[in-house]
Structures are given as C-alpha cells and as structure tokens.
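Tokens for chain A. Residues wanted.
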C-alpha cells in the first residue's frame, strides 16, 4: 500500500493532497494545471515539498534521494537513448524479468531497432519496459499516451491492460482522458487546484452524481464490468453484466473473458415505461438512487441495476416533466452504436 500526503505552495495554488493507493492502477485525474504532475514528481522525490509523508509497504520514502526510492517513472515523451538499440535501452534500466517484460509488452520484434525507427506507441512501450526492468516497487506514469494520436493510443492500451493485470505493485497513472482512466484504473483520485476533491474505487466515484462537477459533464459516466458471452454474426458482442445483458459493436474480448465498458452519462436515455419498437438494443431495468441538480440545465441521475451502477445526464425539464424521484423504477436505454470502441477494455 502506498500512502501519500504532500503539500507545496505554488504562486497560483497550493498542492495539498493525501490519498492511498493499493496494488494496481490508481488514476490521478483532473484538468490541466490541477497539480497532477506536481504530485507524482513529489512522490518520486524530483521536486521539493513544504511537507511530505510518503510510505510504501511501511517504508518511509520521504527522506530518500530519488534514486534510492526504487520507483519507475515514465514521462509523456519516451526519453529513450537514440544511439542505443531497443534491447540496450531496456537493459539500461536493469535486467529484472527481462523475458517477461519483453513478452508482456510485445517488444521482441523491436529489440534490434533504434528509437528513430519506432512509432510513438512503440517508443512508449519501450519506455515502460525500461522502467519495469529496474524491478520498481512503484510505477509512475505521467500521461504516457498524451502525445499519441488515437490509433497509437488504441495500440498501446491493451499492453497497459496486460501490464496492470500482471504487475503486483501500485501504479499511479496521471491522465485527463477519462477513456484511458475507465479502461485501466481500479481507483481514482480527482484533483482540482491542488486539492483532492474526490477519491475512491473507480466504479463508485464515476457512478456518483455528486462527483460530476469534478469529473466534468462530458466525462461523467459509469463503468460496467461483465463477461463476454458471445459474438454474433452481424458484428456485435454480447456482454453479461450484473445489471443485465449489454450489446456492444465489434467482436471484442474472448469468450467468457472479463471486460469493462464505460457508459457515458450523456448517452443514457430514461423511460418511465418499457420501450417498444426502438432501434436501441440495450434496455436495462433500473432504480433511481440519487438526483443531483447542477448550476446549469442538467440533472445527474444515479441508477442501480442489480449490483451494477449507472449514471444518466438529463435536462432539468425532462426530470421535472417525468417527475423523477429517488426510488422510482425506470428503464435505461443505450444504443449499441453509442459505445465507442475505446470505451471497451
């Protein structure tokens, strides 16, 4: 378990953040300028703090020099040595579990090449591998996909998922991209002007209507977990979640494999009665568990479908016109085509 409490005064805000991160991915999320990079630089020992208390597995890192903290750090740009091959770049970090690192990140075809001949996604995979070869007790990823275009992000994300599933150390993943966060993270820490405004298990935070002002109305939405139960001949995949069956576009995942789907709140439509004659394939029976009115025309509606939680974003006019109240039974409607490929991991 990583435990962090750091403070530092900047000219325009004060960083004052305290949180815990178990093994697995903890996302550090927030808008640009909220203090995300400042926070993980403090954890790494790369910047001075007014106060710092950082422990990992009971070991106090706060007074140690950066090179003694045994932390792997991957920056936004890969920072590889251009004159070294991929293999020599990897070995610069060390040789811990060399074969396993190369396998999990799919680096074998690249070992003899130089960084200039690699794509952006390939360079970031090598940077990840170099960090892992040092056998770190903690991994810090500072927006590692932010410089990549969408196809390169799609290329790297499966490797990050594999890394998450096969690494038993805490990973702090800095991002302002909710698609990445929803696919990778187990927990989330949301920063605003240097302060932790909300934190907790990813599914709980993203489904909480009170968190919408901090997540952002366009990024708000829940994550459903389930298992792939079949691929249809017409190009759809059926996923069985705790809230019911969900159809998504494409042949995604493997049979009976675990999968998670991000469902943006703005794509969920509510109905008082069971809909008939709709083109939408996904209709879930849900109960309203919370209503949060914002300062604008929107209302965030928390929904429970079995053990699963959803979030819908509707106008206040629709909410009032339908007379929506906590405890009401309604139907949540979601078009299969509204689920973007990047939101399925």
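Reply:
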């Amino acid at each position: 378990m990583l435990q962090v409490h750091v403070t530092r005064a900047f000219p325009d805000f004060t960083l004052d953040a305290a949180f815990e991160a178990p093994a697995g991915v903890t996302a550090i999320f927030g808008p640009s300028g909220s203090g995300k990079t400042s926070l993980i630089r403090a954890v790494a020992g790369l910047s001075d703090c007014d106060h710092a208390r950082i422990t990992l597995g009971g070991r106090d890192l706060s007074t140690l020099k950066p090179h003694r903290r045994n932390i792997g750090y991957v920056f936004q740009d890969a920072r590889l040595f251009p004159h070294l091959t991929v293999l020599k770049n990897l070995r610069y970090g060390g040789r811990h579990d060399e074969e396993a690192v190369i396998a999990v990140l799919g680096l074998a075809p690249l070992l003899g090449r130089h960084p200039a001949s690699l794509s952006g996604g390939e360079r970031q995979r090598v940077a990840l591998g170099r960090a892992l070869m040092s056998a770190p007790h903690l991994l810090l990823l500072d927006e590692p996909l932010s410089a990549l275009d969408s196809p390169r992000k799609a290329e790297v994300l499966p490797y990050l998922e594999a890394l998450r599933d096969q690494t038993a150390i805490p990973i702090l993943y800095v991002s302002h991209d909710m698609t990445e966060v929803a696919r990778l993270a187990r927990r989330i820490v949301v920063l605003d002007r240097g302060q932790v405004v909300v934190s907790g298990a990813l599914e709980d935070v993203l489904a909480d209507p009170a968190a919408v002002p901090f997540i952002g109305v366009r990024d708000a939405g829940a994550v459903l977990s389930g298992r792939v139960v079949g691929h249809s001949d017409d190009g759809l995949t059926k996923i069985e979640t705790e809230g019911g069956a969900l159809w998504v576009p494409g042949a995604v995942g493997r049979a009976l494999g675990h999968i998670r789907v991000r469902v943006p709140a703005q794509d969920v439509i509510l109905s008082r009665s069971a809909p008939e004659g709709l083109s939408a394939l996904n209709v879930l029976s849900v109960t309203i568990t919370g209503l949060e009115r914002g300062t604008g025309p929107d209302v965030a509606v928390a929904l429970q479908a079995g053990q699963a939680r959803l979030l819908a974003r509707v106008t206040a006019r629709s909410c009032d016109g339908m007379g929506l109240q906590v405890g009401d039974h309604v139907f949540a409607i979601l078009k299969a085509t509204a689920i973007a490929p990047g939101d399925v991991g």
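The mean pLDDT is 92. The domain at 221-343 is CATH 2.40.50.100 (OB fold (Dihydrolipoamide Acetyltransferase, E2P)).
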